[in-house]
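Example record

The entry below shows one chain as it appears in the dataset: sequence first, then structure tokens.
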Amino acid sequence: MTEYVGASPLPGVRLRAIFAADCRRRLALMRESCAGLDGRPDERSAAVSALAEEAHAIRGGAAVVELRQATETVAALEELLAGAAPDAAAVTHLLDELETALPAADGAPPLGEIVSAAPGAAATLVHVDDDVTCRAVVERLLGMRPHVRLVPVTVAQDADLVVRDEGPALVLLDLHLGSESGWEVLRAIRAEARTRDVPVVVLSADGSDGVDATTRSLITARLQKPFSAEAFFALIDRFAPAP
């Protein structure tokens, strides 16, 4: 049975700076995609898909760092993109609003420099997520659990192979990995004899998953974004306790 772990805010100036830097990068890509909204039907479809993918990633990051205005704006953008024929001008207006809502990105450290695992770490955690903000949160928190070695994976196609090779104590798995589904990663992990018993905790910004009960039963636990430090450490201490 899947366990659901409670959530609460985990804000921080440095994390918000990391989110803002990543969000501005995504916004630049989205502005390029807007040109396709005025094109042929196939071009419009591709543009909407690309815009929706980036918007979902931004919403997840905004939820993690508790930026209410940005979360509300990107939710409005997702609603617009789900409509029959989203207008390029309306989409651009919301992109402008979203950029205005972002904090300064000054001082955002490179992701790999936030924390580093102590030598001789006793347990390995594989984190499968393409969201730079969530990866930064996990890295930052694991600075308080130096016995845990973090192995980040950003590409869905590599995830099950990394899990097989690393033999981790725990896998944190995001459900939305760009155009790929975290559910496919989960099925691949469970299908492999060497990894089928590895605990997998799903990270999700919402409660909707659109899969059957059999697939949901493959999850060990679910951690909803934004999650509290207490909820995160409860999972770490349960599956990767200090020696």
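Notes for this example: The chain is about 50% helix and 15% strand. The CA atoms of residues 52 and 78 lie 6 Å apart.
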